[in-house]
């Protein structure tokens, strides 16, 4: 038989079981007028980034809520894991995954009737991917290409508002000249994306990431080394297309004029190779012009001999240029024989046997020209001392009658000699 007391005990036991079961199923939530404050490890993330989200829940009195209080998180972008977390010492933690997204993630935490108040402290915003881009800075390395063109590296640095480099951000490069190896590139862990520009002309380039575009960067075309060379004989006029070898030395001497004109880059060195196995340094042509004299050997037969003189210039950027001119040396001229004759004024009526002698020189020059004479040395044939004159006439007084042979030796300016003779009869 069941007594009222036993029935009451059974009811109490059942109620306790139901209460325990109810507690297992209902989460512990923050009490009314509690406050939630949410923070993020990073407020700016690349599109594949992650960061920790922390929600601190405090009661009205400012104390931490009971351990195990459930906080639920939500986001407008990306993924949160876990979505629900229990507090420990008043803080609940979850992880935000950007998940290849781009934009602004609004992450909110709620628990019971707790709120963020007027300041919405239970909400945190994280800028993700391209939306986090604040500044794009572009540079070219090197800043210019050579005079015939070349290739430079374009490097775009992408940073957030806080100055942090952003990884995995798509950067689009553009140029008004030349070609890009790839117009699109993603930033690395240092926040840099790169491509290459190949151009033969001055190019203006830029880079864009998200809504931000870099300032324009100009890739210039450097001036190269420029030199000119001119050649002229040291005597006479004209160029070096046909320089006749000297009749006496079978050589030809010419002068080269080497110029670095306006518009040339600054030279480091310049050298002239004469084309005959010899060369000469010209320095850096800082003065703009240099003149060099050089002597070439003439031909050994009737065929002209040609030489190619070349100036090689290298500028301070390592760029090189060369310019050449030809020197054609023609055979030396044929020298005609020297003929010397002597005319006298002795006759049979010579007074005191005084005679005047005049030497006439023909030939000895190039072609039909006469050689220039430096001196005349006279032997009068009577045992007297020889006499040397600069002119072609002289006089002599003989002391006795007789037949005399008069000899004159002429010396040309270039050192050749020739002899002329005549015989006189004095009564």
* Content of β-strand: over 45%
Give the number of DSSP strands: 34
Could you name the CATH homologous superfamily of the largest domain?
Answer: Immunoglobulins
- Class computed from helices, strands and strand pairing: mainly beta
Instruction: Name the average pLDDT.
Output: 90
Q: What coarse outline follows from CA principal-axis ratios?
A: rod-shaped
- Provide a count of the helices: 1
Could you give a short account of the major beta sheet? Answer: 6 strands, mixed
- When the domains are counted, the total is 4
CATH T-level topology of the largest domain: Immunoglobulin-like
The percent of residues in helical segments reads under 10%
What is the CATH first-level class name of the largest domain?
Answer: Mainly Beta
CATH architecture of the largest domain: Sandwich
Work out the radius of gyration.
Answer: 54 Å
Distance between the termini: 206 Å
Extract low-pLDDT stretches.
4-23
Chain-wise SSE layout:
Blueprint: H1 4-25, E1 35-40, E2 44-45, E3 50-58, E4 70-75, E5 79-81, E6 84-86, E7 91-97, E8 103-110, E9 123-128, E10 135-141, E11 144-145, E12 150-159, E13 170-175, E14 179-180, E15 184-186, E16 192-199, E17 203-209, E18 212-213, E19 217-221, E20 228-233, E21 243-244, E22 251-259, E23 267-273, E24 279-283, E25 289-297, E26 305-315, E27 320-330, E28 339-344, E29 354-362, E30 373-379, E31 387-389, E32 393-397, E33 402-412, E34 417-426
Parallel strand pairs: 2-9, 11-19, 21-27
Antiparallel strand pairs: 1-3, 3-7, 4-6, 4-8, 5-7, 8-9, 10-12, 12-16, 13-15, 13-17, 14-16, 17-18, 17-19, 20-22, 22-25, 23-24, 23-26, 26-27, 28-29, 29-32, 30-31, 30-33, 33-34
């Amino acid at each position: 038989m069941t007594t009222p007391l036993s029935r009451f005990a059974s009811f109490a036991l059942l109620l306790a079981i139901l209460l325990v079961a109810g507690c297992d199923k209902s989460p512990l939530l923050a009490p009314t007028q509690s406050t939630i404050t949410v923070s993020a490890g990073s407020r700016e993330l690349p599109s594949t980034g992650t960061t920790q989200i922390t929600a601190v829940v405090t009661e009205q009195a400012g104390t931490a809520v009971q351990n195990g209080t459930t906080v639920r998180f939500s986001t407008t972008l990306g993924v949160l894991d876990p979505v629900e977390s229990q507090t420990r010492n008043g803080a609940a933690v979850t992880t935000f995954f950007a998940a290849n997204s781009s934009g602004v993630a609004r992450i909110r935490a709620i628990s019971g009737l707790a709120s963020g108040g007027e300041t919405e402290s239970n909400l945190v915003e994280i800028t993700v991917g391209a939306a986090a881009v604040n500044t794009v800075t572009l540079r070219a390395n090197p800043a210019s290409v050579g005079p015939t063109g070349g290739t430079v590296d374009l490097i775009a640095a992408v940073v957030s508002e806080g100055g942090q480099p952003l990884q995995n951000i798509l950067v689009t490069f553009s140029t008004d000249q030349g070609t890009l190896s790839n117009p699109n590139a993603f930033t690395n862990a240092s926040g840099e994306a790169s491509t290459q520009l190949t151009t033969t002309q001055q190019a203006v380039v830029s880079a864009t990431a998200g809504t931000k575009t870099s300032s324009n960067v100009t890739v210039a075309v450097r001036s190269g080394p420029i030199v000119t060379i001119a050649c002229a004989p040291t005597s006479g006029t004209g160029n070096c297309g046909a320089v006749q070898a000297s009749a006496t030395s079978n050589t030809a001497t010419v002068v080269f004029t080497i110029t670095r004109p306006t518009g040339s880059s600054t030279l480091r060195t310049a050298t002239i190779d004469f084309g005959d196995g010899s060369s000469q340094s010209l320095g850096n042509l800082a003065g703009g012009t240099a003149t060099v004299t050089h002597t070439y050997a003439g031909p050994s037969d009737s065929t002209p001999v040609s030489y190619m003189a070349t100036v090689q210039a290298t500028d301070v950027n390592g760029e090189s240029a060369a310019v050449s001119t030809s020197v054609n040396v023609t055979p030396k001229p044929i020298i005609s024989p020297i003929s010397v004759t002597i005319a006298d004024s002795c006759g049979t009526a010579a007074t005191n046997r005084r005679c005047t002698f005049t030497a006439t020189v023909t030939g000895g020059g190039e072609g039909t020209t006469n050689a220039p004479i430096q001196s005349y040395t006279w032997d009068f044939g009577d045992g007297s001392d020889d006499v040397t004159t600069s002119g072609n006439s002289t006089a002599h007084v003989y002391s006795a009658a007789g037949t005399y042979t008069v000899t004159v030796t002429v010396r040309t300016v270039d050192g050749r000699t020739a002899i002329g003779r005549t015989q006189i009869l004095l009564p």
